[in-house]
Amino acid sequence: MQPSIPVPTDNLHKFMATFGLVLIVFSVGAMIFAYNSAHRELISIAETYLALEDKTGKGVQEMKELLEKRIDILASNRGFYLFSLIWPFVVGCAMAWTGFERWRRLQPLHDELLELQVVKARIDAYGDSNHRQFIAAPQLKKEHARSKE
Prior knowledge:
Blueprint: H1 12-52, H2 58-126, H3 141-148
């Protein structure tokens, strides 16, 4: 099975830039997911807390304290997750920047090399470098019949 998206592995700089972009997208997506999950949980806790607001009793007070502890734990966990996901984002930015910068510097050399290879191939095949004969794309039979008329 052939991959539908070709991965640019012919050059380390292209791979580095692409992998850096993947890290950036992953870390941003994970940050959004962590933030939204914590936000949904906080809303659930707040709804439960508000439902217990009018009630009194020892069990209700313990439940309120438990909910407050869950809020504190959730806030510290969210901070930890977001801080942990900053590092892949920073590494991804550095890799993408370095890869694209080096790719930008090397691409003109690759273009010049390709142009020289084309000129050499034309000289080998036709004897001069100005020959620009290309093979036309195949035509359909109906189009070929129309062109004869």
